[in-house]
What does this fold into?
Amino acid sequence: TSTAPTTTVAATTTTTEPDATTTTIAGDDSIRQPLTGEIVQSEDDLITRPALVVKIDNNDAAARKNHSGLAVADIVFEEIIEANDTRFAAVFHTQDSDPVGPIRSGREQDVELLSGLNAPLFAWSGGNPGFTRLIRFDRPIAHGVDDPDHLPIGTGFQRLALGGQRHGFLLKNH
It folds into this structure.
């Protein structure tokens, strides 16, 4: 009796990858405001003025009671300044607010935060010497007051009776 030779073949598995699915969305040719994404009819409708950033107090109930302008800001950043205290950096571009405040001091972190806004105007009230030097000489962000108790005429800054010295410094008619 003769026996045929045995052959062992390893089992194979064939896997077929499905074709990749792609979704194509027609290009969005909309013209939009840069900070809000609001669609406008033409490039002539784009707002080309610089954004105005205002530092607004948020440390205590008196400050929060006197907030002006936050509701119409295009962007509001909340920044931790020390411990649990915060301040807002309200960015106005497509709308104005009159008044805005209460305005508080700038911080060194504002320089980096705001540098992406294409040289905005910056309303602030005082700051440490390092910050003041940065904002005045090293970056294209420069509108502010170092001493709000001695306001130059025509700056647009105004001290109002709103809960004390700290909470009554506002920007008007900007």
Q: What stands out?
A: Strands lie at 31-32, 39-40, 52-57, 75-82, 85-92, 121-123, 157-159, 169-171.
